[in-house]
Design brief:
By secondary structure, this protein is an alpha+beta fold. The protein is about 30% helix and about 45% strand. Strand 6 (about 105-120) and strand 7 (about 120-135) form a beta hairpin. It is globular and about 75 Å long.
Amino acid sequence: MKTKAMLFCMFIIFILISGCGKSEPKEYVSKEGGYKFTGPAGWHLDDEGDNTLVIKRGNNKLIETLSMQLEDSPEQLGSLSEEELFEKIKSHTIDIADAYCSDAGIENKSVNSAYKTQLSGLPAYRIQAEGYANGLGATAVVDIIVGYDISKANVYLFASQIEKSEYADVMTDLDAVISSYQVIQ
């Protein structure tokens, strides 16, 4: 009897040590938006719209993604030089960052970095800023990436808002989400 009890206890300990119940990364898909990405373990879908997905972990970590049609046609975008295209993306990203921070109640925004990048292989621009977030009651880091799909005249947006004191701990998760982001048909 003691042997069975001992084996049972060892089995339970093995299950606990092996991570039973641990959450795994999850793929999120916006068919209407035409994109997908893998969210980090422990994050969950908070909101979903036609072209929008919002995932969250706790109250202070938020990732929003969306896609939308541009006013420009694929021909208009295709006729731009690479420099003109990046200036257009940069200007659009700055406008989106300003609107995002305003909508999120982020005051005294200051830009930490802004640079050319890619999102799912598309030309993109990234802005990282911080400011006081009224909703969090703390300073937040805002990270926005806007990618242009010239062939579809579509824009893809990645935005995160994370309390500054937690940003360094979440940076690996954000980079993984950005790296996994894919435009789909």
